[in-house]
Amino acid sequence: MERIQQRDEVIRQLEEDVDVKEIQAIIEDAVSRSSDQMREEREQQLLEKQPQLDDLVRFADATFDTFDETVPGVRHAYQTAFRYAMRPRGWLVLVGPNGCGKTHLAVAVAKERQEANDTMMIQTVPDLLDHLRSSFSSSTYERLFDQLRTVEFLVLDDLGAHVNSPWAQEKLFQLLNYRYNRMLPTLIIANHVSVDERIASRLSDRGLVTMVVMDQAKDYRPHNVLEQEKED
């Protein structure tokens, strides 16, 4: 009996010396910090997965030197894009059908700006909106959206190819309006200009926006393929 009493006394003293709530708080804090760290790592991975020039394998060789300006209907676009690449002021919008060479020119401009050490992002609008929507409730959204708004040079491909929901319209307007008000260099590629009227209003500002419509351009891609086959 005496031993049992001694044991109980030892246990009681240990319990008095140890603050159970404090230990529980320490454990919960450690778990919380671990969860926060894991979430930050996942969000950083998502940000790092944003498309870069090196990811555009199809346009790995797209430069001004490799662009064939002799293809009918593309010379004006080539000359305008080249001047813009050397000194990007305002926005450049390239509009034309599939295969007219506008993405080649956009990548060529982006490479020149990268060589000039501009911070740069290149995004396909439908994919970008999907990513923003999926990350809307996390800090990834704010970080990505802030990067898009403030990056020195932004390329947006396939404007108008997205699902034109109210949410998509609002996000695009917020992004483009921010860059418009600060006159940040932005290159936009579109098959046709079919956007929210507020964005259309920004695109119609001839003091800021240079729009090149390549509707007379012949299909650039087959021409390039044939030339490469001849060289081979």
Automatic annotation (TrEMBL):
Alphabetically ordered keywords of this record: ATP-binding, Nucleotide-binding
GO terms of biological process kind: DNA replication
Molecular function in Gene Ontology: ATP binding
Keyword Transcription regulation included in the entry's annotation: no
All copies of domain AAA+ ATPase, residue ranges: 88-215
Pfam families (UniProt xref): IstB_IS21
SMART domains xref list: AAA (SM00382)
Protein name: ATP-binding protein
Native source species: Dictyobacter arantiisoli
